[in-house]
Backbone:
């Protein structure tokens, strides 16, 4: 099955403002404290559970191989999944882009006469801006994951793939509840959770439609799996009469036996758990009135740029991501600026490679450069995605597609290339350049002025010291030694 060409699209996109947003985030001390605390906690938990897993590397390699195989024959697996799912009564829909996806959901809600819709956590519905689309039609989508619910209450977007409200401290959440729900402003975490639970319990019973994401879909039987820790996904998908699951087309696994590997990789990497608390598997609607579960089960398979990613030999492995969030927790950039600075539904290292590919590099120019290329993301990734390699690949695309953005950089490299090809030119360039570089690096007023005025130096020296050029170059020292 060949899916048609896509028109990529993503909600809440403001990725080109990364620089300004990151600088603002760096000034936000409460945000940085909340981030440091949460990311350290998750990274520590992950470290502890991995200490008990001597065969972790083999498991990662195996996960990588399964995903590579699944992606290499995705058309075949998709066709298989659709056949099997439909044979068991699941209705399958395809959407090429965000607009088509929202139309499918709106059409379903209209047919059901739905007003309240409960949702369990799903990044892909964030990607298509589903809540805004439903609200525009007068419907009431209600997030039921606690973090997502908090973020929805605050009128914000998630800032982490698995911990949507990671940017908020407990005290901020207590103040939010006080402002929006009229509770006391000094509730502790348990009391805040009880408030949310009480409100949400009533909402499940009112809802006509429940929407979930999908962690993994199994082609063999047309089944899909939803993982969660709060029980909210189970209530969202079983109490309403109709369940709609929205998934990116990359979520497919060929066989049931593949699942075992990912059920071990994902919770350990994401939350440092041995197993996720609730693992719900769906294979069609209920078969008889006495059975439990929804009358109708629908799966919406979204492309939204993924087919184009599949065709890129270097970047294809981006689609192997299982959205564990581990790369965010160790990323020195994410840990300082948080998720909102990325101006994209997908933040952190995985966002820096997913977003430009789904929306086009011109709409996310700074993201491939929002990395120190330290490689921590690659080292923790449970499916061994080589994120730094893809970042470099995307940086190349940014320069290719937007050559006018870096004329000074290109001029600099051209001059460097001319000098590097001739020993004489190199000698002259270093003789002339060394005192200038030393002056620019000096703490003197002239040095400060030079750093402020010369555009390439401005960016480099904004948050770091310019290294001082040596008084005597290596070539001169070598020549003296020879003499
Ligand atoms: S890229 Fe790897 S570490 Fe990051 S979210 Fe995806 S699977 Fe997890």
Residues:
């Amino acid at each position: 099955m060949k899916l048609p060409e896509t028109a990529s699209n993503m909600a809440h996109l403001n990725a080109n403002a990364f620089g300004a947003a990151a600088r603002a985030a760096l000034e936000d001390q409460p945000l940085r404290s909340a981030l440091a605390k949460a990311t350290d906690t998750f990274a520590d938990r992950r470290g502890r559970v991995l200490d008990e897993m001597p065969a972790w590397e083999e498991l990662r390699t195996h996960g990588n191989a399964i995903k590579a195989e699944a992606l290499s024959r995705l058309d075949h697996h998709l066709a298989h999944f659709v056949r099997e799912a439909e044979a068991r009564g699941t209705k399958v829909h395809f959407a090429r882009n965000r607009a088509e996806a929202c139309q499918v959901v709106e059409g379903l809600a209209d047919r059901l006469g739905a007003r309240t819709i409960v949702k369990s956590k799903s990044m892909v519905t964030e990607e298509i801006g589903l809540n805004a689309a439903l609200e525009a039609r007068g419907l009431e989508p209600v997030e039921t994951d606690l973090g997502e619910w908090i973020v929805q209450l605050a009128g914000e977007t998630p800032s982490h793939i698995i911990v949507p409200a990671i940017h908020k401290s407990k005290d901020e959440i207590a103040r939010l509840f006080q402002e929006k729900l009229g509770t006391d402003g000094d509730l502790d975490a348990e009391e805040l959770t009880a408030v949310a639970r009480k409100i949400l319990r009533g909402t499940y019973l009112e809802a006509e439609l429940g929407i979930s994401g999908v962690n993994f879909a199994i082609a063999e039987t047309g089944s899909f799996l939803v993982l969660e820790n709060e029980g909210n996904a189970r209530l969202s998908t079983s109490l309403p009469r109709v369940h709609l699951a929205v998934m990116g087309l990359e979520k497919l696994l060929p066989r049931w036996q593949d699942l075992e590997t990912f059920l071990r990789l994902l919770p350990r990497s994401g939350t440092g758990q041995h197993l996720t608390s609730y693992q719900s598997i769906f294979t069609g609607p209920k078969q008889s009135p006495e059975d439990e579960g929804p009358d109708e089960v629908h799966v919406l398979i979204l492309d939204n740029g993924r087919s184009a990613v599949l065709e890129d030999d270097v970047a294809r492995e981006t689609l192997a991501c299982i959205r564990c969030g581990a790369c965010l927790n160790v990323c020195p950039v994410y840990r300082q600026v948080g998720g909102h600075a990325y101006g994209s539904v997908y933040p952190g290292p995985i966002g820096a490679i997913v977003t430009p590919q789904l929306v086009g590099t011109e709409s996310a120019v700074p993201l491939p450069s929002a990395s120190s290329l330290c490689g921590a993301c690659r080292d923790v990734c449970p499916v061994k995605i080589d994120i730094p390699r893809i970042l470099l690949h995307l940086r190349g695309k940014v320069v290719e597609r937007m050559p006018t953005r870096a004329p000074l950089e290109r001029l600099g490299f051209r001059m460097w290339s001319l000098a590097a090809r001739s020993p004489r030119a190199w000698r002259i360039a270093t003789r002339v350049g060394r005192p200038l570089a030393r002056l620019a690096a000096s703490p003197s007023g002239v040095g400060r002025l030079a750093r402020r005025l010369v555009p390439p130096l401005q960016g480099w020296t904004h948050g770091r010291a310019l290294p001082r050029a040596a008084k005597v170059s290596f070539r001169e020292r070598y020549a003296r030694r020879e003499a």
